[in-house]
């Protein structure tokens, strides 16, 4: 028995949708991998890691994107096979996959907002982290140095964060009053910072250090980074979930006719 005109349209739309679906899966997978392997983001995420956890909460969402991207490949295969072969079992499987993927994508978007609010409430603790671990913990030190170099800032609340830090009391800076990455640099390398004027930067007198030292703390810039990540996760999660609705509609229409 031949398909009706509407069912043929649904079949055509479903095949076309799956091409878009696969492309979206590649994009989601690529974004997840990028967030996990990009050195800059991994370094900043280290500052946002929850106590007791190895990674920042957003990094777990990036792993979720990688997994969702993989599911899209399998789900799209079922949808294409079901549409071309007009197989109701594959179409039902495809519908279930779309439903599960849509739920997972919505969860990523919602959790990103929850994680953002949770992380924002403890960003002030980064000032304590700097005082306790800067110059002592290598990975933490690199993360602060990178943030200060990238955002042209100093400390979390300001240069005063270094005043009573372990870095200062243990003289790990060898007489410096702030980290070298707090200075205006002649290069942009946080691993080998070269201050434009080291003497002026390390001076205790505001009139001398104001031109050669960053006076603003990094807190605002780190907050902006966190919010940008949240916008990215919400856009991907909710945007892709909206796309899945069309695939579910087309699969239902075609399933009713075969």
From TrEMBL:
GO terms for cellular component: plasma membrane. It is found in: Membrane. Keywords: Membrane, Transmembrane, Transmembrane helix. It is a multi-pass membrane protein. The chain crosses the membrane at residues 12-37, 60-84, 91-115, 231-255. It holds the Pfam family Tetraspanin. Its main location: membrane. Belongs to the tetraspanin (TM4SF) family. This is Tetraspanin. It comes from Caerostris darwini.
């Amino acid at each position: 028995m031949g398909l009706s005109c509407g069912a043929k349209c649904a079949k055509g739309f479903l095949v076309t949708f799956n091409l878009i679906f696969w492309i979206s899966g590649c994009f989601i997978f690529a974004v997840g991998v990028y967030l996990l392997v990009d050195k800059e983001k991994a370094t900043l995420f280290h500052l946002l890691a929850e106590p007791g956890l190895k990674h920042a909460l957003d990094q777990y969402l990036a792993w979720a994107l990688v997994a969702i991207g993989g599911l899209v490949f399998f789900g799209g295969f079922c949808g294409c096979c079901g549409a071309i072969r007009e197989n109701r079992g594959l179409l039902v499987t495809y519908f279930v996959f779309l439903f599960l993927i849509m739920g997972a994508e919505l969860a990523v978007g919602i959790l990103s907002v929850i994680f953002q609010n949770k992380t924002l409430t403890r960003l002030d603790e980064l000032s304590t982290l700097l005082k306790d671990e800067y110059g002592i913990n290598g990975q933490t030190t690199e993360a602060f140095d990178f943030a200060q170099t990238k955002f042209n800032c100093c400390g979390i609340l300001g240069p005063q964060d270094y005043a009573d830090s372990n870095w200062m009391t243990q003289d790990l800076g060898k007489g410096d009053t702030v980290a070298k990455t707090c200075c205006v640099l002649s290069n942009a390398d946080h691993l080998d910072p070269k201050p434009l004027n080291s003497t002026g930067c390390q001076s205790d007198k505001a009139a001398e250090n104001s031109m050669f030292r960053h006076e603003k703390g990094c807190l605002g810039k780190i907050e902006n980074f966190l919010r940008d990540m949240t916008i990215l996760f919400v856009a991907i999660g909710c945007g892709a979930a909206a796309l899945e609705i069309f695939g579910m509609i087309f699969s239902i229409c075609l399933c009713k006719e075969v």
